[in-house]
């Protein structure tokens, strides 16, 4: 981690967590980027699993309200228990009052399955060039120097943080998710993947809002390794909505896809 920056996205604090400045998103310095929040929810979902050696195959996040940079609480429960397949729900809230704690700001439902050895299908498509063939870049649109974009080492295959259009990039974690714990590949994937609509933006950050209201990640196998990749394209419709779709990779090939619905409006 770069000297002087936080070493984690979240610090444990009693029955909750305190978000560090590395969670700050691009729209408001008082609000978190949804990527770290998504990873924190996935961590909580896997802590209540009844299939401890299983795999998380689909994660659907609903962003119900902005998440402030500060103290948050997370909780999870099994919606559909099972020995082979289960559905887990995790929710995040902020604030100290009972009303605040009962108001979810972001929600996850995740399908998890037992892992077992089967014959997989051959990987299709052209492999994504690796991080050694990519160039480093730092986002220029964040309003504070210490924010989400400092949590990962970004290496672009094509496209750019700072120019419109489709983009593909590799990332490596520069911090942990929770202080004192290693960041798992799935947590890293979620911290990264919510930025798909940011790296592939087609509108000017200064003139338009195109925040996502959800994030869905579907995986054919668990991510592995230090470097994870995202190849994203954003399309804006004529009625104030957009969609971002991305292919997700690790060093050995494709691992799944993501989708985000975007609310689009002039700033």
Automatic annotation (TrEMBL):
Residues of the Acyl-CoA thioesterase-like N-terminal HotDog domain: 25-113
Domain of life of the organism encoding this protein: Bacteria
Acyl-CoA thioesterase-like C-terminal domain boundaries: 131-264
Name of this protein: Thioesterase-like superfamily protein
The organism of origin for this protein: Geodermatophilus siccatus
